[in-house]
Amino acid sequence: DGQVPPDYVPVEQVRQRLAIITRKPHVQWIRTYSATNGLEKIPEEADKLGLQVAMGIWIRDNKKQEIDNLVATAQAGYVDIAVVGNEELYSNSSTVNQLIKDINDVRQRLIDANCADIPVTTPEPFETLFAMDAKGSCTVIYPQLINSIDVVFVNIYPFHKGAHINIALQDLALRYQCAVDAVHELDPNKPVIIAETGWPSDGLTKIDAEPSLPNLARYFYEVAEWAADNNVQLFYFEAFDEKWKENPNYLFTLI
Fold first, then answer.
1. Structure pTM?
2. Range of the domain at 175
């Protein structure tokens, strides 16, 4: 609605957007990216509609307030997964040691608040977390990071790898299974969730990947069916267009 972060988001707007999201029967979770400027109200409103929440905190600015709001929301019973930052290593916004420290700090705050049962994670792109060879086998690049989180959040975008829409689902499934196998070599019980995937509706073709509404719709429905059939948990990026971050090359949305 014309806001640009860190503009305040009123709770009425949150309720309106959540009402739209819950019209879709396949939506069971939502993921947020910040816990200030009104966004900290999302988990409570989502809970009223029966949604589970992966509550994110933005740790590049106002870290203390973000963490305080996360902990308060967790104490109120509205947080199912705590998400620390977003693509911090990929964006060179943090080092792996600092990121692990932030994760551990958040976990300790949750423990102190009697919320030790809430899993803590951080999301990174597939290519940041895993090295995949020509045979499709993966190795973990930062095992110390994987060991520091309770559930692995990996962002996978076949579009950004230039995959044609005809093989996009195959590419997603390959990278997902590769990630699962690599993680389970370290810890066979650690869950792996696709924290972001999607297809742009407009913009420039990237190798064989063409952005368009038909391709977006095809990718969305193929991914939804595959995830349901294979018991794969994922977050589709994203629910609404955000004008403030429109890229002249790509426009992601969800229809």
1. 0.91
2. 123-254
